[in-house]
Every structure is written in C-alpha cells, then in structure tokens.
Amino acid sequence: MRRVESTAAETRQQRKERTRQAILDAALELVAEEGLAALSLRQLTKAVGIVPTAFYRHFSSVDELGLALVDRSFASLRDMIRETRRGNPELSGVIRSSVAILVQHVHSDRTYYRFIARERFGGVPVVRRAIRHELELFERELATDLARLPHLDTWTAEDLRVMANLIVNAMVATAEDILDAPPERPEVEREIVRTAEKQLRLIVVGAANWRST
Amino acid sequence: MRRVESTAAETRQQRKERTRQAILDAALELVAEEGLAALSLRQLTKAVGIVPTAFYRHFSSVDELGLALVDRSFASLRDMIRETRRGNPELSGVIRSSVAILVQHVHSDRTYYRFIARERFGGVPVVRRAIRHELELFERELATDLARLPHLDTWTAEDLRVMANLIVNAMVATAEDILDAPPERPEVEREIVRTAEKQLRLIVVGAANWRST
DNA sequence: CCTTTCAGTGAACATCCGTACACTGAAACT
DNA sequence: AGTTTCAGTGTACGGATGTTCACTGAAAGG
C-alpha cells in the first residue's frame, strides 16, 4: 500500500487525479456556455477524451461534479481574500487595491468566477446552496476583517455582516460585469472599476457616519 | 377584417393570445426549476396541452420565448417602481415602504422575479443581454428619482447611476433571498427585510455624507 | 355560399441523451 | 510470480430531444 512508486513516469493515482482535473477543466469551459443544468455528460467526456461511462469512476453524479467545481472555484476566491489581507491597512488605498486584486483574479481565473456567478442563482439546487454557503463563510471572514477598521470597531456583529453582505453582492456583480466586458475595449472595464470603487467608497462613507443621523 | 366577432364565446385572436399566455405561464414554471437553457420544448408544450410543433405558431425559437418572458417580467417590475413612486416622499419612511412593496411584489409575482434572478447571469446570451438592458433602464429611472431627494440634487448624473446600480444589485439579491426563504418560517424573511432596510439606510447615509470626508 | 386563413394535429426522422453491462490491460499489491 | 485492483473501453438499450411535413377543421373574409 505505502510502496514508493516504481514507475518512472506516473503513478496510478497521479493519472487518475490528472483525469479528474481534466474533467473539472472541461466542465468549467462547457458550463460557461450553457450552465450546469444543460451540461451533457457525453460532450463533457468527449472534450476530456474519455468514454462517457468512465466519468463515473470520478464522480457519482453531475451534482457531485458541481460541488467539486464549487470547491475549486472558492479556493481561488480564498486566495484572493488572503492576498487582499496582505495589502496595506491604510483606508485610503485599500479600496483601490482591493478592486484591482479582484479584477486581476477575475481575469486569471475567469472560468471560476463565471461559474460562481452563473450557478449562484441559476444552478441546480444543491449547487446553489453550496455556493450560498461558501459566500456566507466569505462574508463572515470579510466581517471580521471589517471589524479591524478604525471606525467599525464598535459595530455589532450583525451590522458588520449586513455591510459585508452588501459589499460581497456589489463585488459579485462587478466580477460578472468584468466577465461580460468586451476585451477589445479596455475603457469599458475601466468604467466598471471606477463604478466599483465608488460604490465601495459610498459604503465606507455610510459606515463612517452610521447612526450619526 | 374589422368585423365585430360573431362568435359568442371567443374570437380566434383571443384564443391564440390565450394559448400564448399559457405558454408563457408554463415556461415560467418550468424555467424556475432548471433554467431556460435546459428548457425542453416537448415538456413545455405538454404542460400547456398542445403538440410540440404548435409552439412555432407563437414563437420562432426558444430565444424569442425568452425575450417575451423578459418583457412580461419587467412589466411587473415597472408596476412596482410606479407604486413605489406614489408613496410618501419623506425620507424616513421611504426605505421601509420601498422594501415592503418589493417583498409584496416578489410574493405575488414570484415566478417573474425568479426568472429574472435566474437568467440575469445564467441564461442564454441574448436573454441575459435583454435583462441587462432592462435593468439599465430601471437604474436610469431610479437615478432620476434619486435626484429629487434633498441631499442628492447636486450630484452628477454619473454618481447617481453608480448609486442606483448599487441599490438595484442589493434589491435583486434581496428578492432572490426572499424567493429562497422557507415559507414556513416567517422570521427568516423578517431578517432578510431587516438586512435590506439596513443596507439601503447605509447607502443613503453614505450618500448624505458624500465627498464630505 | 364558397374560399382563404391558420392554430393546432400527428406521424416520422435523425440525433442525442444517461446508464447498464461485460470487458481489458496495466499498475499495485502479496 | 501470481493475484487483485480499477481507470478506462465498447456495445447496446430505451427514451427524450428538436424539427420536418402534410393534414384537419373551424373561424374569418369575400
């Protein structure tokens, strides 16, 4: 069982994992066009280069595939928030840099964010619920980060969650806008970025003057 | 051509229109479960009670059906904004009443809002673009309404659009939350309403103190 | 009264779908 | 060396899919 692999090229587990990843990659491509509900097992396996029945060696159902895609996509999102956290904690630059990091991530992991945006409301129930749950965890993380900001350290946990929810919704919408922006017209994307920054600033200003009215 | 209908019961055009509406109704039901991309023409026509080919007497393609659904759904949304406009213009109560009207509309026209939320990001490209366009019009309307509010009459058109966009995104997310809330637990919905109200208030407070920081 | 229009019919089609089943062959283990 | 495991194969199936075409029959128009 715990033998060192004798084959020079590739062990069996490695091959399997490689096929699994190939399935996930192909699924992300196909889902981007028609959505998970309209995903055909046959064209998926054809894109991977395996026979339809071989799919079941890796996933017991399409729903399970969907959940794996949720995991994979949110791993990228967690990378993003980690990177954002490393940035400078000054309030002035944090908005610009956060949006910039978001844009960069959306571009490099385009298929992940397309998947999340697509299946968040549209997907199969079990996948939609999984995404919703992950976004909730994400909001909670964001809320604890927000609590460290100067004006917000006296806020209740609930108010922080409400604010985090608003921010996450705005950022998801921003991500989808960027995905839909024509690549040959960079000024459209600049406009989206400016809008996102203004919205974040509006929220922050609102937070700074909260309960003062 | 312009004869008064001689038949007592129903004229031919009326029958056709009735079938058309039945198709739209059935489509809204089916789309709620799996999305427009996974809609089957056969089960749709079976639900209506007509033969598959009869569908083409009303729509030349599924995409066209989708666009008709967009029209129909946004007609409901326009009713809503009209109703909201009629409300009292005092700032204090406008948030609570707006959210209340939203909730009421989402409940009575549940399938329309489900459709919009589902197909906004997830749908067939042409439908997604149509929804995006309608939401843009809606944002523009909202922006002109916002311009009449006390603190906002000096704002630039662009800033108003940015704010309207943020509000619309938050409200769409709220609508979907309400749709997903379990009907047997009204306290969940109350929580969603409270969150939506707080978010709107946060935005309004931000707007009131805009550029003052 | 005769003709036209046209919403809906019903059979037929080629194609794609998911999945069951027995299989192969090489890697992994004893 | 012999055995087991198992990722991937290949066939075959019953059923659902979208679209075609010629049709029916009642309402609308002349």
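qc> The two ends of chain A are 68 Å apart (CA to CA).
qc> done
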